[in-house]
Amino acid sequence: MEVFNLEYPNQIYLDDIQEMMSLAIGYFDGVHRGHQEVIGEAKRVAQKKGYKSAVMTFHPHPSVVLSKQKKEIHYITPKRDKMDQFEQFGIDYVFIVRFNEALAQLEPQQFVDEFLIKLGVKHLVAGFDFSYGHKGKGTMNTIEEHSRGMFTFSTIDKITHNEEKISSTAIREKISTGKMEEAHQLLGRPYHLRGTVIQGDKRGRTLGFPTTNIELSDDYYLPKAGVYAVKITVSEVIYDGMANIGYKPTFNENEGKPSIEVYIFDFSGNIYGKEVVIDLFHYIRGEQKFSSIEELKSQLHNDEERIRHFFAISS
């Protein structure tokens, strides 16, 4: 998979790409089951027509550029995770278009001319609600006119699960309320966080629960504070574990910034500095402040028992 970064107006056109392409276009935060239908259709057309498969996405999120106030965005799939998903789908080319003020001002016809026709797109696939051009005036109802007859297109209708539209907004709601199983169903995979193991306060060792402290590698959308049943990948080996995401109220720590720590079951070893991936499967309970260390230790034992049982019956 080859990745190209494009920017307007300092666009660099890729003379070395002479291939005809079937291209899926969208922001694709989450690369959820709805997005997968769009990408899958682009791949099917590519295979049928003998085209290369391609994806066009945008970065940063348009709201960062269009908002009048400084805005911080937390992503379901930060850019690296998106690229990983596209590669798993076997996409040939990915185009990451920098979303900036100049791009936001392009009229729909200009956008199509600059980013689709000049690129050599022969078939375009997008969701029914995809829009393009200044103030989103271009839609899949106008794409035929704007294509100038240079490419064909497919529109993917709304994809639902249990009569609910699968969308990034719906997934964020599931994550923010700890409904990890429902987020899993909409994503088509467990929600995950990626980060690096850092030094912590080592208090977990004194409690009998030595934890791995994680510094996230990107601006992930965090689930609600609490304890979770997780699987953690360390050096390509997957372990069951118990994660705490939150503010450690018993010790009055991290009041402003949540911490992420994982007690990895049946594991020992020094993994400081290693990258790990945490898959979140089930919300166990919310954070709470305990009146004593013994009360906290008792609760942690109960949490571990519940999580081991959860994975035993779900495996």
TrEMBL record:
InterPro entries: Cyt_trans-like, FAD_synthase, Riboflavin_kinase, Riboflavin_kinase_bac, Riboflavin_kinase_bac/euk, Riboflavin_kinase_dom_sf, Rossmann-like_a/b/a_fold. CDD domains: FAD_synthetase_N. Pathway: Cofactor biosynthesis; FMN biosynthesis; FMN from riboflavin (ATP route): step 1/1; Cofactor biosynthesis; FAD biosynthesis; FAD from FMN: step 1/1. GO terms for biological process: FAD biosynthetic process; FMN biosynthetic process; riboflavin biosynthetic process. SMART domains: Flavokinase. One of its GO terms (molecular function) is riboflavin kinase activity. Residues 186-312 form the Riboflavin kinase domain. Keywords: ATP-binding, FAD, Flavoprotein, FMN, Kinase, Multifunctional enzyme, Nucleotide-binding, Nucleotidyltransferase, Transferase. It comes from the Bacteria. It holds the Pfam family FAD_syn. The keyword Kinase applies. Its EC number is 2.7.1.26, 2.7.7.2. It catalyses: riboflavin + ATP = FMN + ADP + H(+); FMN + ATP + H(+) = FAD + diphosphate. Catalyzes the phosphorylation of riboflavin to FMN followed by the adenylation of FMN to FAD. Belongs to the ribF family. This is Riboflavin biosynthesis protein. It comes from Salinibacillus kushneri.
